[in-house]
Amino acid sequence: MNIHYFNFAFIHENLPGLVIGINLLDMKGEPKIIEKLNALLADEMTAISQYIIHAEMCANWGYKKLHDHIKVRAITEMKHAEKLIERVIFLEGTPKINLLNEVNIGENIEEQFKNDCRAEELAVKAYNDNIRLAMELGDHGTAYIMRSILMEEEGHLDWLEMQLEMIRQLQLKNYLMEQMS
Ligand SMILES: [Fe+2]
Ligand SMILES: [Fe+2]
């Protein structure tokens, strides 16, 4: 340790140009961006909990197709959380993984879809708002990452809206008959 420190001090005094180079590599992020990334992380952690519970409730009711689909969605949210954690660490912030918002569990399939739909609507809005903020602050890397997540949230929302429309058209009983195997 001491040797490294000595080397750095030596370089610092004799090659100030190199020190400028080191400063250019300092990727410390805007505190506002780190705060927003952590808020998005809380949303993702909440979605993971909500969707895993919904998926397992579907399995328990015998709706295997729904279980499989919702489980895949929960795993996608885990990957979103991973991307956000990676970005916070890259920006030299501290990822806060212990924050959780209210988890809204639906007591039946339709209620689950409506609650998940609401979560996805909020996610789409939050990512859009924060992409705009990151662009304004000149953090295009964070905006790029959030845009890739946003596209998947839009896909989730689209699927949920489609299911609710199918229930409306086919009636719940007929819709659920199709979800068993
Ligand atoms: Fe997500
Ligand atoms: Fe989502």
| Bulk shape | elongated
What structural class do you assign from the helix and strand content?
mainly alpha
Largest sheet features: none
What is the C-alpha radius of gyration, as a whole number of Å?
22 Å
Percentage of residues assigned to helices: over 70%
**Total number of domains:** 1
Low-confidence stretches: 1-25
CATH topology: Ferritin
CATH architecture: Up-down Bundle
Q: What is the top-level CATH class?
A: Mainly Alpha
Number of helices: 7
Distance between the termini: 61 Å
| Distinct small molecules bound, one entry per kind | fe (ii) ion
String of helices and strands: HHHHHHH
The fraction of residues assigned to DSSP E strands is: under 5%
Brief overview, please?
By secondary structure, the protein is mainly alpha-helical. The protein has one domain (28-177): Up-down Bundle (Ferritin).
Topology:
Layout: H1 2-14, H2 16-24, H3 31-61, H4 64-90, H5 109-136, H6 140-170, H7 172-177
Helix pairs in contact: 3-4, 3-5, 4-6, 5-6
Bound molecules: fe (ii) ion (2 copies).
Describe the protein in words.
There is one protein chain. By secondary structure, the chain is mainly alpha-helical. It has a single domain, classed as Ferritin, CATH 1.20.1260. Helices cover 80% and strands 0% of the residues. The chain has helices at 2-14, 16-24, 31-61, 64-90, 109-136, 140-170, 172-177. Helix 3 (31-61) packs antiparallel against helix 5, helix 4 (64-90) runs antiparallel to helix 6 and helix 5 runs antiparallel to helix 6. The chain is elongated and about 55 Å long. The N and C termini lie far apart (61 Å). Bound molecules: fe (ii) ion (2 copies). One fe (ii) ion (FE2) binds next to helix 5 and helix 6.
